[in-house]
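so my prof wants the structure for this chain in the tokens format not the other one, which i didnt know existed until like an hour ago. anyway here's the sequence
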Amino acid sequence: MSRKRKFLIPAALVLIGVSLWNILPDYLDKRASSRTYEELSEDYTEVPAGDDTEKKKDWWLTDVLIRFDELKEQNSDIVAWIRSDDPESTGIDYPVLYSGDNEKYLRRDLYGEEHIAGSIFLEGLNRPDFTDYYTIIYGHNMNDGSMFGGLKKYKEKEFWEENPYFTLYTEDMAYRYQIFACQEAANGGDVYKIGYEPGEEYQALIDGMTGDSLIDTGIHPDSSHKVMTLSTCTGSGYSRRFAVHAVCVDVQETAGNLGE
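here's what i got, hopefully its the right format
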């Protein structure tokens, strides 16, 4: 072996070692965060398996059990649980936290531990009882598809057709949402303002969502409906964010169905 090759081999090993040193901590952090939320779903929610559940029209109300009393023992900032009909496809099956401070859970899990993935959390200017006409929920765009990393799949209409619904559960209510648009929205633009009420300004916001949507769902809500935006980063800077917009199509009380 030449002296040049003898030099190149250890140099390459050093470069590999340095790369692993830089990458491994982030990878382990993401895996730990993912396991935390997987365990939460296993410990505090119940969704009966099988086709019979999905055939029932109101299965999302009667067959999904959330143990909010036990969850709130872990963190009283938990105000809801958000779950898509098929979490394996969308990756959405998480507690929603609220503190009034958008920075608090940006890089912290529900236990207060620092993690890159942070938590799914409600916009600080929204009411935590979900009585606002317009609500925003944030989550990081994780490369492994966790948190709100799966939202980008809604850029494809076929994915929306297979996954058009999600449900937001609180201690007392279940809010059924149907996704009607997705877009890349300006950070700080109208999509990220709070306080809309039924009327022209709110209708203009909704019309802008459908007009700028990357897919045509054929759904055009009016300003009498509540709308929820699920927001994450685009992965290409901070000036724009990726937003999935959904209209509330059903609201039911959950007393006697959830948390028992």
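also thought this was worth mentioning. The first helix runs from residue 3 to 44.
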